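Q: Predict the bound structure with adenosine-5'-triphosphate.
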Amino acid sequence: MRIVVLPGDGIGPEIAAATLAVLRAASERFQLGVTLEEHAVGHASLEMFGTTVRPDLIETVRAADGLILGPTATFDFKDEARGEINPSRYFRKNLDLFANIRPARTYPGRPARFGTFDLVVVRENTEGFYADRNMEQGNAELLVTPDVVVSLRRITRLCCERIAHAACRLAMKRRKRLTIVHKANVLKIGDGMFLDVCREAARGYPGLAVDDVLVDAMMAHVVRQPERFDVIVATNMFGDILSDLTAELSGSLGLGGSLNVGAKYAMAQAAHGSAPDIAGKDIANPISLILSMALLLAWNAERIGAPRFEAAAHGIEDAVAAAMREGRVTRDVGGTLGTTATGQAITDLLRSGASAS
Ligand code: ATP
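A: Predicted complex:
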């Protein structure tokens, strides 16, 4: 499996290095034959090449079997004419990675302030309120006068259908429960269509239990009773916000793994941003990107029909659970280790075949 690695900005290079240590160990133990090809994106690329994403990078990624993108300094990149492309948006859009899969779970042996749970947020990834990607050309935020802004949200039946089916398929492999999160009481047409399409799609999956919750009420439900949820499907921005909450409820934003998936390609990417406040201090939690990488291996298992990739993904998840149980993790989740040492601990536990419980 040939994987392109783009370490990114802020804490990106640190958590990417820890992730690659784990990946190399997984490749050895499960005979995955992983080869890695690293390139600069974000500020490093802007300095070297005058653009945050080199134009030839897209073909390099298309020719590979998977992509690992570290967090990038999205907020800094404002003017595409000056080469300031948002790498995350660029790959999601150009590879049509329409589903963002964001699991969140608690770990045995670690205090769970809001009860134990294991859920996945499935977030639509290509349209919604994301003004930088929901238009064919141009940007969907308009400055009408210096004091008036209009931001457009795009919802299409096709995008609702494909995210609904992705969520249903995932729920059928898990506990067969689907929750549709929306705001159809206010966004009656757009979220009304999203809700209808999700309900209609779910009818095609026998035994799938479906309910729906308004996004504002969801903030209370998921804090009060997170164990109630299995797979949650949401439009782009609601899913983004909700999944930061579920990651934090699981212990830390630094546990938020995520995979962006389309029909042909997949990109592992931590759910959080580049966290410049803690960059370069060896304190960032690398588990988010390690779990994202495990999701990429599991995706590849299905893609090429190779169960050893699925076994490797489980092995990595078990090693993470063991590190959490033993407290061999970063401070944000109650440990005392740095980023590199946490990566090393997970690598050692993976090599020794540590079990989750
Ligand atoms: P960006 O502008 O790139 O989104 P940000 O700092 O605004 O960056 P996040 O990176 O998502 O937003 O992080 C919010 C806060 O959560 C950070 O300031 C940091 O303190 C914490 N955080 C995020 N990721 C991690 C991590 N991997 N480990 C520990 N703490 C983290």
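A: The radius of gyration is 20 Å.
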